[in-house]
Amino acid sequence: MSVGGSGQKGSLSLADRFGELGAGVYDAWMFVLRFFREAFVPPWHFKELLRQCYMVGYMSLPLISLTGFVTGIVFTKQSRPSLESFGATSWLPSLIAIAVIRALAPLVTALICAGKVGSNIGAELGSMKVSEQIEAMEVSAINPFKYLVVTRTLACTLMIPVLVMYSAFVGLIGSYFNVHANEATSLISYFQDAFSTITFLDLWSSAAKSFVYGFTVGIVGCYKGFRASKGTQGVGLAANSAVVTGMFLVFMEEIVLVQMINWIRFY
Amino acid sequence: MQNQIHSDLPMISIRGLCISFGSLQVLNGIDLDVWKGENMIVLGRSGSGKSVLIKLLAGLLKPDSGSMEMLGKKVETLDSKSLDALRLRLGFSFQSSALYDSMDVGGNLEFPLTMNIKNLSRKEIDLAVDEVLEAVGLQDKKHQMPAELSGGQRKRVGVARTLIMKPEIMLYDEPTGGLDPITSNEINELILEVQERYKTTSIIITHDLTCARNTGNRIAMLLDGKFVRIGTFDEVFDGSDERINGFYAYNFIQ
Question: For an engineered disulfide with B201, which of B11, B66, B170, B235 has Cβ 3.0 to 4.6 Å away?
Fold first, then answer.
């Protein structure tokens, strides 16, 4: 089966398309397995890992601050009329805390990172691939998978949970501003109300989801970059595909993980 | 530059090497010996498989059949650890230079050194970087980024990055590709300087006959997946093979 371009692709049979999809899934799965094989074997590139943590974590702070803060304010504003109709505006802090910590902070942060970090990794590694920089590492006896993929994926896995916690905190602060403007609630009283309904399982599940999303964003970006085809068009496609695939997988994982957490919650 | 260099055992020995991509047979059973200290030119048209040959030698591709022996090691049978050990004795100069965009020239040069040799002091690293920069004539470019360099300077930095590991074998992929005649001539001189100063054995992939004539001890002409002629420049271009004559005429008319 030869697939040279879109013209040829149009003439592929359904069986060929499934075969191609199966080969792609197998290749991606082998890539993930290779990550686990390489990540736990020395040498480890701590300096590059730290640099990537800085790039993924610190450099994402302005965007995460903005989205977290706006999400907190908007969600509070939108929820207020419904609660007001029941005379239950005092429930706002706990409602917002549950929504932000359980769902909004992990999901919104992961989607923002899939866009910002995933595209960045896809484009960077794609560009290195098409300009032979990855081959240059190989012929210098440097393992490019370990140096580029393991460090970037680990940085995402470690830093996105931190960004999620930060985003949740900023979201609650945004929500506090809205609540304070309407009910003149103090900051301490707001946070006491907010955390009164938060359980250990809420915090634990949010952190667990963040690690999964972080790993997904990192490994998808690296995979798409590593598999970029020749040429500048391939770099653009790698960046684009890293975002689309990353977001799709984060949504799919959200559905599965929420279901699993709910089982734990009720049984 | 057409004297043949002899020694007991070849540094590179290729036998019956074949590789195909899909239905396209790129190399079809080639044999080649390269002797110690020799600059071997591999000439051929674009798409004839020249670059594929040195990528096979560097272990970046796997052959369908045949054997490649370098520095006494059978490349196609090596595990990744042994292949890395062999690669430390090779230098590979890429057609695109393949400089790391995120690092300055100094960073590019010290990267293979610091990644492969642990516990080097800052002074030792700086000395090694300065030495190779001096060898390629770019002492004042240490802190510049690759994007700030000209095509010829990028090629030189690419060569310097391989020299820092003191390679025994150099593989040059189109060293004068995309360069003007004056810069090409400077790169040809650099290749000869590297051969003289570092006592390297080289395979130089090119379709530039000026580069071939000025830098090569011998030339292997690759046509239709096979070496059709191996010898000195005058032996290869003695006018007896129509296909080679056409290549010669076209190249010099250009």
Answer: B11
